[in-house]
Write a structure and sequence with these properties.
By secondary structure, the protein is an alpha/beta fold. Among the domains are: about 90 residues, OB fold (Dihydrolipoamide Acetyltransferase, E2P); about 240 residues, 3-Layer(aba) Sandwich (Rossmann fold), CATH 3.40.50; about 180 residues, Rossmann fold (3-Layer(aba) Sandwich), CATH 3.40.50. The protein contains 27 helices and 24 strands. The strands form five sheets. It has a seven-stranded mixed β-sheet. A hairpin with a 4-residue loop joins strand 3 and strand 4. Helix 8 crosses helix 9 and helix 22 runs antiparallel to helix 23. The relative contact order is 0.09. About 5% of the residues have low confidence. It binds adenosine-5'-diphosphate and magnesium ion. The site of adenosine-5'-diphosphate has 19 residues, from helix 13. Adenosine-5'-diphosphate binds next to helix 13.
Amino acid sequence: MTATATPARTLAQLEQVPVTRLRGLPERKAKALGELGIESIFDLLTTYPFRYIDRSRRAELADLAVGDEAVVLATVHDVRSRRTRQGRALVELVADDGTAGMKVVFFNQPWRARQLPSGTEALFFGKLDDFRGRRQMTNPVVDVVVGADDTEDQELRRRRTLRIVPVYRASGKVGLSSWEIGAWVEEAIRRAGAFEDPLPSTWRRELALVGRTEAFHDVHLPTALAETTPARRRLAFDELFRLQLALVLRRRALERDARAIRHAVSPREVTETPRDGGTLVQRFLAGLPYRLTNAQRKAMAAVLAEMAGPLPMHRLLQGDVGSGKTVVATAALLAAVQGGHQGALMVPTEVLAEQHFFAVRALIDGLAVPDPARLGGERPLSVALLTNRTGASERARLRQGLESGDVDVVVGTHALLTDDVQFHSLGLVVIDEQHRFGVEQRAQLRDKGRASVVARAEGPDASADPDLLVMTATPIPRTAAMVLFGDLDMVVLDELPPGRYPVETVWAATHHAEEDAWARVRAEVAEGHRAFVVCPLVEGSERVQARSATEELDRLAAGPLSGLALGLLHGQMPAVEKEDAMARFRAGTTTVLVATTVVEVGVDVPEATVMVVEDAGRFGIAQLHQLRGRVGRSDLPSWCYLLGPAGTPEAAARLAAMVQTTDGFELGEVDLELRGEGTILGARQKGRSDLKLASLRRDADLLDAARRVAESVTEDDPALDAHEGLAEELRLFLAPEEEAFLFKS
Ligand code: ADP
Ligand code: MG
């Protein structure tokens, strides 16, 4: 090989080379690869083995015991294809290595009969089971060593038996075996030669990462298993690094394009005692019926400092259920108002919008803002509610108030995003329970703010961006948050208000145990407290769900909760009825609220001390945690009963975790463990940015490192002008619109 002659390859170059350029790749196979999304050499090289077979550890069948996992080199005979009684394709054969024989069974892989005719010599990798007294492997990984009618190249293939064999996801459907993929990858690696390494070498050394050439070689063609670990680590780092680089660049691009409103507020307002009444924020804080927690104080100061600063705020406030995010948001909204701007609080449901509206209004009751046009020079602060159910005339009035600036703070659902809503000067957008909203809605509201100030194109704030505060109680592990919200700065409320008891959680799997739950409801109601009963999830429309909630109410009223004042709440009720149901429950006119998951997020009734979740095994961890968060919101002890058998082992694991801890972040980790990161990242992962090797669970340290490098590299070079290799590679992974946004100068 002439190592000096070939210049190093970039991934972008390899992306330009179609797989058809490989020798020994027939048209038909190229098509099959295409169906797996593998079109270029780049695609092929980033198709990684999912395991390796260490052939040097080959075992003899006679030495194996049932339960052992092993590689066996054996010759095939007695191949039979048939269907099971359920209609599944079944291929059975006998494999014999001269020391003993075993049965091999493949389900749903009819093509195995063609792949493994009698006389084939193949490696079988799997676990030896006992089936009706016979030794058997079911769906083993297979690697054909010598085909039944192979005449040439036998020596070459036998030599392969000496090394570590990468196993790729074979696809019976398109007719590709792991062996074939491996052969093409091997050729591609050989012909590609050296890879250009875009990672600055100082970082490579500091993080002790192997070079890219070595990484690609060793992940696909290791000569020892130990080599695969550093190779995988390097390639996983690259995946996380590209992702973090894109997120950091996005944030820097926003900063570059943005015209921030420098809000008339200072973080000192959170800590200092005001003179003569103080600012709006100070008067608000002075009037609170409780002391802020340290975490609230810190978060508030961070938010206000950023609002006052020269860059628009993009901040995520993470705080477990009940940690008191609303008051932080309210202070921020008032900070916007005190400088003459408006604030909007957007929430995902009408029930929550109403509740926040009442809560915010109660919190700011009696506060006034300067108004030179009035006698006395001020007017009461005005808060409005806007949802899809807001009547036409009320809506018209409200629109006008928002446009003129007479409305200071608006609380609403995504009805706030409709075109006819214009703001006089939107200074801050708060989005609560963000997991219920998409990224698009976040952007939409920001653009709306920009448009509102553009419209008044004079003055110091012309074409400014409103600040953005996103709040979430979804227990997402830090690693996932870094990937999902890496373009937002984060602040965490890691402390609950004092005097809270952790909610005592009971998994009541049997009918007998269930009786304790109803007894507890009765006892607590007798003490003057309140309870929620969340109805089972039923398949079907909202209407079906509503009907079943109604039936459940009747059942409870006639049975376990007879004599108690039960209320009903579901999504199909008209707004006034919902309001009414919530108001009666708050007031204690009804003491048990039988509800669907509409109570899941945000509902705040401090007197509620019992939460009963029926058929709890059907709910996800995040949802159960949110539901449980509806109780334990005061200094009273509270209970959560999770009813019903689990149904599946996963559900059992979820319920057990709920019983074990009330810490949202711990639960988030369990959730990540149980569901896998694919589902959690589902929303953001598109096409090439997929994490193929990196795992948020195993690679948390790499993720941190990737973030550090991304921050550092872009610090002095925000458009990657001096890092052409990185920029080029990033383009490979970005959608065109994203690319235009990040790299426009
Ligand atoms: P979440 O973070 O879940 O949105 P909320 O903002 O709804 O929490 O607050 C939960 C409850 O705790 C509310 O009833 C609120 O009035 C109360 N609360 C908030 N902060 C404090 C505090 N510092 N001390 C006591 N109670 C507080
Ligand atoms: Mg809340």
